[in-house]
């Protein structure tokens, strides 16, 4: 429990670091197996830090709406008036599920005659994903902590051209030194967005 609490506190710290280093959009992903407990803990933390938190970021979340607590609606209402940094909290989210539900929506539109099968392209499909309503749905950099070198079913469509950084530190230990290390690694990359090397 202490480790989870430290992890939530680390989210608040990371919001501060993102503001400090000019990061405009920050996305935090919580594994599905930890969602039930962490949502309660995260709600408690946000309630205690709401005013400070909302001065620094607006809240954008990616989750199944029937499981969202009242705090997310409260945060949404306040975040609509905040045009500063954005924090996306991905709770109870799965990349595969996101793609499947997008395909299901498109299949219904085809069935209803709204669109034709040949109309479906990357843009059309992207509009049905859980991130379609966010201003920046495609992350520039993914930081994976704990030494794991996988994306764990997170934003599988949206990460197509994202730069990946794998950090050996565990999430509760991820601090400013590790954050700067990831940013410097990103700055050294030659981003090609799917293109070949010159």
From TrEMBL:
Statement: the UniProt record of this protein carries the keyword Transferase: yes
UniProt KW keywords: Transferase
GO MF entries: ditrans,polycis-polyprenyl diphosphate synthase [(2E,6E)-farnesyl diphosphate specific] activity
Signal peptide: none
BP term (GO), one: polyprenol biosynthetic process
Top-level division of the source organism's lineage: Eukaryota
Cofactor: Mg(2+)
EC identifiers of the protein: 2.5.1.-
UniProt record similarity statement: Belongs to the UPP synthase family.
Protein name per the record: Alkyl transferase
Naturally occurring in which organism (per UniProt): Papaver atlanticum
């Amino acid at each position: 429990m202490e480790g989870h609490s430290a992890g939530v506190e680390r989210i608040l710290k990371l919001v501060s670091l993102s503001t400090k280093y000019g990061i405009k959009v920050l996305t935090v992903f919580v594994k599905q197996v930890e969602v039930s407990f962490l949502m309660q803990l995260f709600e408690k933390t946000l309630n205690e830090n709401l005013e400070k938190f909302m001065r620094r970021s607006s809240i954008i979340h990616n989750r199944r709406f029937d499981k969202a607590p009242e705090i997310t609606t409260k945060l949404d209402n306040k975040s609509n008036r905040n045009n500063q940094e954005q924090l996306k909290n991905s709770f109870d989210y799965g990349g595969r599920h996101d793609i499947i539900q997008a395909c299901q929506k498109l299949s219904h539109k085809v069935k209803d005659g709204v669109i034709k099968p040949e109309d479906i392209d990357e843009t059309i499909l992207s509009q049905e994903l859980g991130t379609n309503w966010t201003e920046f749905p495609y992350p520039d950099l993914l930081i994976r902590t704990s030494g794991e070198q996988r994306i764990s079913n997170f934003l599988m469509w949206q990460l197509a051209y994202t730069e990946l950084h794998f950090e050996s530190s565990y999430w509760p230990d991820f601090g400013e030194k590790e954050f700067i290390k990831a940013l410097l690694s990103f700055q050294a990359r030659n981003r090609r967005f799917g293109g070949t090397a010159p």
